[in-house]
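Dear Dr. H.,

I hope your travels went smoothly. While you were away I took the liberty of generating a structure for the chain from your last submission, since the lab meeting agenda had it listed for discussion. I wanted you to have the full record in hand beforehand rather than looking at slides cold. The sequence, exactly as received, is reproduced here:
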Amino acid sequence: MKIVIALNENKLDSHIALQFGKSQWFCIYDSVADTNEYIQNPMQHSSSIDFCESADLFIEKGIQAAVATRFGSKIIEYFRSQNVQMIMTEPNRQANSIINIIK
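The corresponding predicted structure, in token form, is as follows:
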């Protein structure tokens, strides 16, 4: 299973970002291969509110779930249309704690 996690930094002990579309980094975790790939958010400094364009990248990479503290309404609609499960977590949770649960 591939999961995209919205992060504040590009490391596993980073806190999960408060808002999926405004995060600084994303980690794509592949539970089968037990690998991580970090991607800087191309929309983090954009004034555009349509994050769905860059979310296509995650669909192309085969993600099946997304983790953040919150998701905006447009990304919720988009992920639902792509059958991506959204997992909301409490603030100040670290990415490695989510990955440990998945393992």
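Two observations you may find useful: The CA atoms of residues 11 and 70 lie 20 Å apart. The first strand starts at residue 2 and ends at 7.

With kind regards,
E. W.
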